[in-house]
């Protein structure tokens, strides 16, 4: 596994290069599918928050905590 | 011609032993009855009972002196749910404890400050005498239920009644934006969800509150526009235009420790802020006066 940010960046670049050349390893393809699915799953929540912010005129400033402080 | 609120206040100021003056209108015969509640002798000379431009009939009632309804830490509660520690976001109606003092009161509800913006616009509402440091020392921690647990708000602003002048509320607010999140919920423990816009209570209406000592209770509004003299121990303060609420259930609408409770109208709107009582009578300040004193904005959150 890449350790430094530079190594991580290089690994990501390699994944992109492999994908463009059609040589992407199967594990990396699964990882990107998973990442894409996560982004798509989060999209409705993000859009809902955005709509509330637009419609509520600042209501999204209210951000209730969920700590069990007891 | 002066209105009933002014006449109530004028009579209270003439009678040093009177605690409470309110007027009840009898629709059947078109008469006003002005009640003077006292636990001592009154000056019964006509001048001391006012010229009565509205021909009100003065009724003298015996009643206990009015005091702010805070309680010592060890005071029992009818419902442990109102005195226990609550996870975030904390509902209104539960016990709170001010910094460095041995008494407890009640958290009214989440409110919004009109002169603040962003996350800092949200605050906890209660009485000034529940968190008396709010006036002198902004930024002190307010705990729920006691100082053993982490803070839910920090003192920010207050209207403190004094021995001079005439007051309309005893109230304070503290920022509930703690460590990047809001510690309070818009919910009130033991009550249905609040509707967004406040309104004034009406005479004869049944109202409700949730408080630290007596829990969720019901009361009947017997007067609005009342004048009250409240004894704070080291001084006495005069209030005008207050709501008067009578017990419906046993053990009663309020008790020491319930100071700071939000009084809710029949149609689930924020209506008044409970702060004093005596005997079977509770006194609360209309939310309009609290809104003016603390610069609040409604609705707190959009529907």
- The oligomeric state of the chains shown is heterodimer
Query: Largest protein interface?
Result: A-B, 15 and 24 residues
Average residue pLDDT of chain B: 93
- The structure class of chain A reads mainly alpha
Supply the CATH class of the largest domain in chain B: Mainly Beta
- Helix vs. strand class of chain B: mainly beta
Poorly predicted runs of chain B: none
3D architecture notes:
The complex is a heterodimer of chains A (70) and B (303). The radius of gyration of chain A is 19 Å and the shape is elongated. With 70 residues, chain A is an all-alpha fold. Chain A contains two helices and no strands. The longest helix of chain A is centred in the middle third of the chain and has 31 residues, at 26-56. Chain B is mainly β. Chain B has two domains: 4-61, no CATH class; 66-224 and 242-303, Thrombin, subunit H (Beta Barrel), CATH 2.40.10.120. Chain B has helices spanning 4-14, 133-136, 287-294, and strands at residues 18-26, 31-38, 57-62, 67-68, 71-72, 90-92, 95-96, 103-106, 109-113, 122-126, 141-143, 151-159, 166-167, 171-175, 177-178, 181-182, 184-188, 206-211, 215-231, 236-247, 262-264, 270-278, 281-286, 296-297. A six-stranded antiparallel β-barrel of chain B has the order 18-19-20-23-22-21. At the A-B interface, loops of A face strand 16 of B.
Short précis:
The complex is a heterodimer of chains A (70) and B (303). Chain A is built from two helices and no strands.
């Amino acid at each position: 596994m890449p350790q430094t940010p530079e190594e991580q960046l290089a690994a990501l670049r390699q994944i992109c290069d492999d994908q463009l050349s059609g040589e992407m390893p199967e594990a990396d393809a699964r990882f990107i599918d998973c990442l894409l699915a996560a982004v798509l799953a989060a999209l409705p929540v993000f859009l809902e928050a955005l709509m509330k912010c637009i419609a509520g005129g600042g209501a999204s400033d209210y951000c209730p905590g969920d700590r069990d402080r007891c | 011609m002066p209105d009933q609120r002014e006449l109530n206040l004028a009579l209270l100021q003439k009678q040093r032993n009177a605690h409470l003056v309110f007027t009840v209108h009898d629709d059947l015969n078109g008469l006003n009855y002005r009640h003077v509640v006292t636990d001592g002798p009154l000056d019964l000379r006509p001048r001391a009972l006012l010229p009565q431009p509205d021909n009100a009939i003065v009724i003298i009632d015996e009643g206990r002196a009015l005091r702010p309804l805070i309680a010592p830490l060890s005071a029992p509660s009818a419902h442990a749910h109102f005195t226990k520690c609550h996870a975030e976001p904390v509902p209104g109606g539960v016990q709170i404890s001010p910094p460095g003092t041995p008494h407890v009161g009640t958290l009214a509800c989440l409110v919004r400050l009109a002169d603040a913006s962003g996350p800092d616009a949200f605050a906890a509402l209660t009485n000034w005498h529940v968190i008396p440091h709010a006036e002198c020392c902004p930024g002190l921690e307010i705990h729920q239920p006691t100082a053993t647990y982490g803070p839910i708000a920090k003192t920010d602003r207050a209207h403190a009644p004094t021995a001079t002048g005439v007051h309309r509320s005893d109230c304070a607010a503290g920022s509930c934006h703690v460590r990047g999140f809001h510690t309070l919920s818009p919910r009130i423990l033991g009550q249905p969800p609040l509707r967004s816009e406040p309104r004034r209570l009406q005479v004869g209406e049944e109202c409700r509150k949730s408080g630290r000592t007596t829990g969720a209770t019901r009361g009947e509004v017997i007067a609005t526009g009342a004048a009250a003299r409240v004894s704070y121990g080291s001084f006495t303060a005069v209030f005008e235009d207050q709501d008067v609420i009578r017990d419906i259930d046993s053990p009663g609408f309020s008790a020491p420790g319930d100071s700071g409770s939000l009084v809710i109208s029949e149609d689930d709107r924020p209506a008044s802020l409970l702060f004093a009582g005596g005997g079977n009578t509770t006194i609360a300040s209309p939310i309009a006066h609290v809104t003016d004193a603390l610069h609040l904005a409604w609705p707190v959150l959009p529907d």
